[in-house]
């Protein structure tokens, strides 16, 4: 989750350093969006910890089977983190990317690569925590 925060804040810092009205607007939008999506992801990670007593997200498999309603929240938070339409993250990232592209054309490669890596990380995080077989150390969650 912290890796996506670093990616979002990298875009915010680059927009703030550019200091155009469009980039400042994009930075403001992305900061608000980041506050919403990261808070939701950290809250869900804490809920996972409270149920599994394990802070490593890679060791939590098959939460979709164990906690189906929480899977919906993980999906929404991951989609928001990936900046899929119609989320506010998409508006902020597109505004920043457009202002950076107006400044220097080469930035489209860097921001595109950063956005791709962030999206792949979010997909990996969602798929590892929600799918897979139920590990034996999670059996206490479903037993009464």
UniProtKB/TrEMBL annotation:
<dbReference type="GO" id="GO:0048039">
    <property type="term" value="F:ubiquinone binding"/>
</dbReference>
<feature type="transmembrane region" description="Helical">
    <location>
        <begin position="96"/>
        <end position="121"/>
    </location>
</feature>
<dbReference type="InterPro" id="IPR001750">
    <property type="entry name" value="ND/Mrp_TM"/>
</dbReference>
<dbReference type="GO" id="GO:0015990">
    <property type="term" value="P:electron transport coupled proton transport"/>
</dbReference>
<keyword id="KW-1278">Translocase</keyword>
<keyword id="KW-0830">Ubiquinone</keyword>
<dbReference type="InterPro" id="IPR003918">
    <property type="entry name" value="NADH_UbQ_OxRdtase"/>
</dbReference>
<dbReference type="GO" id="GO:0003954">
    <property type="term" value="F:NADH dehydrogenase activity"/>
</dbReference>
<dbReference type="GO" id="GO:0008137">
    <property type="term" value="F:NADH dehydrogenase (ubiquinone) activity"/>
</dbReference>
<feature type="domain" description="NADH:quinone oxidoreductase/Mrp antiporter transmembrane">
    <location>
        <begin position="1"/>
        <end position="117"/>
    </location>
</feature>
<keyword id="KW-0813">Transport</keyword>
<dbReference type="GO" id="GO:0031966">
    <property type="term" value="C:mitochondrial membrane"/>
</dbReference>
<keyword id="KW-0679">Respiratory chain</keyword>
<keyword id="KW-0249">Electron transport</keyword>
<feature type="transmembrane region" description="Helical">
    <location>
        <begin position="24"/>
        <end position="45"/>
    </location>
</feature>
<feature type="transmembrane region" description="Helical">
    <location>
        <begin position="57"/>
        <end position="76"/>
    </location>
</feature>
<keyword id="KW-0812">Transmembrane</keyword>
<comment type="function">
    <text>Core subunit of the mitochondrial membrane respiratory chain NADH dehydrogenase (Complex I) which catalyzes electron transfer from NADH through the respiratory chain, using ubiquinone as an electron acceptor. Essential for the catalytic activity and assembly of complex I.</text>
</comment>
<dbReference type="GO" id="GO:0042773">
    <property type="term" value="P:ATP synthesis coupled electron transport"/>
</dbReference>
<keyword id="KW-0472">Membrane</keyword>
<keyword id="KW-1133">Transmembrane helix</keyword>
<keyword id="KW-0496">Mitochondrion</keyword>
<dbReference type="Pfam" id="PF00361">
    <property type="entry name" value="Proton_antipo_M"/>
</dbReference>
<comment type="similarity">
    <text>Belongs to the complex I subunit 4 family.</text>
</comment>
<keyword id="KW-0520">NAD</keyword>
<protein>
    <recommendedName>
        <fullName>NADH-ubiquinone oxidoreductase chain 4</fullName>
        <ecNumber>7.1.1.2</ecNumber>
    </recommendedName>
</protein>
């Amino acid at each position: 989750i912290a890796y996506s925060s670093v990616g979002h804040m990298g875009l915010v810092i680059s927009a703030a350093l550019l200091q155009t009205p469009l980039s400042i607007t994009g930075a403001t939008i992305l900061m608000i969006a980041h506050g919403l999506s990261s808070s939701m992801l950290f809250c869900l990670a804490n809920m996972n910890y409270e149920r599994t007593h394990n802070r490593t997200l890679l060791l939590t498999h098959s939460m979709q089977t164990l906690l189906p309603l929480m899977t919906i929240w993980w999906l929404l938070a991951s989609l928001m983190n990936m900046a899929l339409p119609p989320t506010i993250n998409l508006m902020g990232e597109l505004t920043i990317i457009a202002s950076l592209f107006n400044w220097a054309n080469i930035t489209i490669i860097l921001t595109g690569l950063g956005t791709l890596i962030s999206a792949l990380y979010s997909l990996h995080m969602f798929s590892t925590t929600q799918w897979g077989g139920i590990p034996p150390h999670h059996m206490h969650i479903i037993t009464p």
